[in-house]
Amino acid sequence: MSVAFRRESDEEHLEPKFELPIPRAPNRVTAAGQRLIATRIAELEAALATAAPDAVDALRRDLRYWQTRRTTAIPTAAPEDGSAGFGTRVTIRLGGRERTIDIVGDDEADPAADRLGYGAPLAQALFGAEVGDQLAFNGRDETIEVLAVAPIDAAEGPSYEAGGAS
Questions:
Q1: CA–CA separation, 165 vs 94, rounded Å?
Q2: Inter-residue contact 85 to 79 (CB < 8 Å)
Q3: I want to staple 123 with a disulfide (CB 3.0 to 4.6 A). Which of 65, 66, 106, 116 is the partner?
Q4: Are 145 and 92 in contact (CB under 8 A)?
Q5: Per the database entry, which stretches of residues form a coiled coil (predicted)?
């Protein structure tokens, strides 16, 4: 039989389905990041239980992503010395404007809400900084002034403000 007369399956015309990309960097997480992963897994498992057949594949793909993120999570605490780093909330003055930034893991990152992944250039510029430091950024000296540093996850941990700890 000629190939011209064969019936093609519906599957041949569908877009390929790929796994969600896993970031290459270590999967560092804050306590809030661990809760986010657990919540996302629970939501997806609940959605799978009632999902329409055409939505199951996408939900399973998302669930595989989040289960992998849970398995590879590395709980990471803020630096104990009061410097800026992973898991810290840093208040800075940048371009004459005050801004408070949380340095978090990739899955927690939300740049619009000033939650930057630890690999972001601004987050990297802040690593190791202490209150009162003037930092170079974007090729210019003394662009960033560090005003305060505090651990994100600390229920009642110290806050390192300009002028001393509080």
A1: 22
A2: yes
A3: 116
A4: yes
A5: none
Q: 88-153: what fold?
A: Chitinase A; domain 3 (3.10.50)
Distance of CA 114 to the CA centre of its chain: 11
pLDDT reported for residue 11: 55
**Integer CA distances (angstroms), 126 to 35, 69, 85, 110, 112, in order:** 25, 25, 7, 17, 18
**3-class DSSP assignment, residue 37:** helix
Phi then psi dihedrals of residue 103, to 5 deg = -100, 115
Phi first, then psi, for residue 110 (nearest 5°) are: -150, 85
Count of CB atoms within 10 A of residue 107's CB? Answer: 19
Residue 134 belongs to what H/E stretch? strand 134-137
DSSP state, 16? P
Please give the pLDDT value at position 74.
95
- In the predicted model, residues of the chain with pLDDT beneath 70 are 1-16, 154-166
How many CB atoms are located within 10 Å of the residue 115 CB?
19
Decide: pTM greater than 0.85.
Answer: no
Closest by Cα among 79, 83, 48 to 62: 48
d(CA 105, CA 89): 13
Smallest CA-to-CA distance from 165 within 77, 80, 76 is with 80
